[in-house]
Fold:
Amino acid sequence: MSAGARNSAPRAGFETPMPNPILLRRALILGAAAGLAAPAWLSPAIAQARTLRRTPGQTEGPFYPVDIPADNDADLLRNGQVRYAKGQAVWLEGTVLDLDGKPLTGATVEIWQCDVNGHYHHPGDGGKADPAFQGFGRTGVDRDGRYRFRTIRPVQYSSRTPHIHVKVKLDTAELLTTQLYVQGDPGNQRDFLWRRLNEADRAAITVPFGTAADGLKATFPIVVQA
Ligand SMILES: [Fe+2]
Structure:
């Protein structure tokens, strides 16, 4: 065996180098044009390309409900029969997918957040939350993995930048607990939890809250390992 062959052979315990992405793409295009199946050496790269990046987790914080409230649907702007008209109304929507990009059928998404005055429905927050604001909601995903909530744009409280707490469950298993941030909010750079995220993780859980016909709209795509 020549020295070159020895050096290029995969060694146990070492990762095989990634193929050049330009050559990989060219080979795929040429193969597809010729009606050919991808060669065996490309298969691991294709599988890797289909693997989505997992949504990063964040701390649950101290204000997850002690008892799930009676009204826990996806409309946080109506608690029982009382409507909450404060703050900026938001449609928060997205999908829950697994690492292969498949909808996570059967998943439940929960969100909780403070009211416009910065108070949670939680004994640890002194029972000061506005009773008209539902504060917590949950919904199942549809067959395409989609979910949607009606809530408010989160606000700053104490030292925390605006955020919405998010949890994803599959039956009783908790697959993700994280926090969602508002892109461009000046408080993000001062927030101790947001600052410790790397660039990719910030991008994954910090989304635009853009204008919509009836308030704001934010889209939060979630990827979990099922
Ligand atoms: Fe919080």
Notes: The two ends are 45 Å apart (CA to CA).
